[in-house]
Amino acid sequence: MAPRKSERILNLTICLLATRRFLAKDQIRQVVEGYRGLSDAAFERTFERDKDELRAMGVPVETGSNSSYFDDELGYRIRRTDFELPPIELDADEAAVVALAAQSWRQSRMASSTRSAWAKLRAAGVETDSSRITSINPTVAAREGAFEVLWQAVLTRSQVRFRYRRGGTGTGEVRTLQPWGVTSNKGRWYVVGHDLDRGAPRMFKMSRIVGQPEVVAGPDAFEVPADVDVRALARSLEPAPATGTAVLAVRADRAPALRRRGRPSSRPLPPELAGAWSVWEVGYADEASLVGEVAACGADVVVLEPAGVRERLLRHLAGVAGAGAVEASTWLEESA
Amino acid sequence: MTSAQQVQRLLALVPYLLAHDGASLTETAATFGVTPRQLRADLSVLYMCGLPGLMPGDLIEIDMDAVEGEGTIHLSNADYLSRPLRFTPDEALGLVLGLRSLREVAGEDVLAVVDSALAKLERAAGSVHELAGRVSVSVQSGDDRIRDTVAAAVTAGQRLHLVYDAPTRTTRRQVDPGRVSIRDGVAYLEAWDLERRDWRTFRLDRIASVEPTGEPAEDHGELPASPEGWLEALVPVGEVTLELAPGAAWVAEYHPVLSVEQLDEEGAVRATLPLSDPGWLRALLLQLSDGVRAVVPPEAAEDAARAAAQTLALYRRLDLDGLGSAS
């Protein structure tokens, strides 16, 4: 039963904290309530499980022997200096920002970890007035199902395998990865690591991972190269540098995203557009995505140059105009 | 509630109660994120614990009468647990990432506080902080000058004049700033829009310029609770279903969807999206062109087709190629 188990594990912790010498298993069995009365086999099983649980929650259960001269039986203890949170003093403002950070997670496991971290700080004497900073409301979310397994795999250096959909569709292909780090960009999570199938570093978008990644080796299954900089790798997610420049006429105040990327141009406006329009030069890396972006602005943006982009845009728009006609006629027939 | 979670909490609860003699049951429960009932159950576990032997002098002492009577907690005889357990990697990195994302929207004054808190945490986290270089969060928060002006105005309660790039056009607004929030990696200013007489959110990275008007902000009451993410932030007026060719299937990944199903091996999908702005849908259909195979409701496709036809008509009028050959 859970309360009995909690009692037993807490009593074991206190016992191992209170001892300076390593305690042999038999001694532990005699003094810790909850082990007495168990059969030999049941005690072995229970003690091993309790010890694993303590280590999983970060309690440093040390194994060793009291004498290096005699062939002593192995024993256990918890060194206070390894167990205790080092002194930390936060002033009221620092405590307030840490409290905000502790409440920022919107992923259940991380939210519970940061709540527990905050409880530890409170227990270490950190005091705060939570109303101190109300001007900022940060949240960190992770909706991707693969997040938790990959996060743990990064922390424990465990090798993982998963199905990955390239281009966002299909059932995906199997990839095996030594995950070096995770990074979030515009709210999407990515995992970076050494891709064993490609023999090279790769970045994967977690939302394209099908189902749950499987841990196939570890912990401590690999070394992370010393010079890995996850933030620098994440920057490679930013748009490719512009290779072309388009000259666009933009209606006043319209198409802000295009203007924001561009700069005003001194090229002449077609006379028909004089007045409320202005000319902008906008760099682009990919012609197709520029055409899509300009098309989305409808009659608020005109491509002046290059002519090739303009022709492509006109074909693109003709596609929309044509498809609409077909759709409309279908709908009219159905409703008739 | 697993016993591992309970033991973890107990290891923090004991030092907390030693440091806060007479703490209230309800406040302590709130601090630890549990119900008062769960906290009572925790105390009854602690009541049975202590040094090996568990003779009366060995047990942790709790005044159970005060717990049941006044609702206050007096715990003693547990000096071996006077400090909490050190941070697990999850705990330390969770705080570090939370602070780092906060850092990306903080004004100068809060920035200094965040940095000193980060330094202290990293010292206390010991070897865990080596992992801190392997996790990162970035927030779209616009340029420093705009972020600082906004942050200062929120703190000082100054009315702002914004030049704001809404999706299809640049607008000019007067706002009373309420709060800066981060949702899904994007920073927003939540502010009272004086013209619209309501709370609005503005992406910091789309504020083209910001200046205090010189007037103080007025009190507009409580800010509405922030939605947790963009899906919740939308006020849908309807929904739209798109059949997307493989090359346009990214739409179902990029935009919030109500449902999505795969149509064939090549990767065509049918996605249903919440619709809050018909203008947004028209722009999307214009952008995707024949990447969209079918639209429900079909009026949306007609609307986009009309906009495309108008644009084509504009090009015909301008006769840009004719212009080129004449010069």
Would you mind describing this structure in some detail?
The complex is a heterodimer of chains A (336) and B (327). Chain A has eleven helices and 13 strands. By secondary structure, chain A is α+β, with helices and mostly antiparallel strands. In chain A, strand 6 and strand 7 (188-195) form a beta hairpin. Chain A starts with a helix and ends with a helix. By secondary structure, chain B is of the alpha+beta class. In chain B, helix 2 packs across helix 3, helix 5 packs antiparallel against helix 6 (108-124) and helix 10 crosses helix 11. Chain B is elongated. Mean pLDDT of chain B is 89; it is low at 323-327.
What's the CATH topology label of the largest domain in chain B?
Answer: SH3 type barrels
This entry's quaternary arrangement is heterodimer
Shape of chain B, please? Answer: elongated
Distance between the termini of chain B: 79 Å
The arrangement of helices and strands of chain A along the chain is HEHHEEHHHEHEEEEEHEHEEHEH
The most extensive contact between chains is: A-B, 131 and 141 residues
Broad structural category of chain B:
alpha+beta
Please count the beta strands of chain A (DSSP E, at least 2 residues each): 13
Q: If helices are DSSP runs of H or I spanning 4 or more residues, what is the number of helices of chain A?
A: 11
Given as residue ranges, the uncertain stretches of chain B (5+ residues, pLDDT < 50) are 323-327
Sequence stretches where pLDDT stays below 50 over 5 or more residues of chain A: 326-336
What is the strand tally of chain B?
14
**Sheet with the most strands of chain B?**
5 strands, antiparallel
Proportion of residues in extended strands of chain B: 15-25%
> What is the averaged pLDDT score of chain A?
88
The proportion of residues in beta strands of chain A is 15-25%
**Order of strands across the main sheet of chain A:** 8-7-6-5-9
Number of domains of chain B: 4
Order of helices and strands of chain B: HEHHEHEEHHEHEEEEEHEHEEHEHH
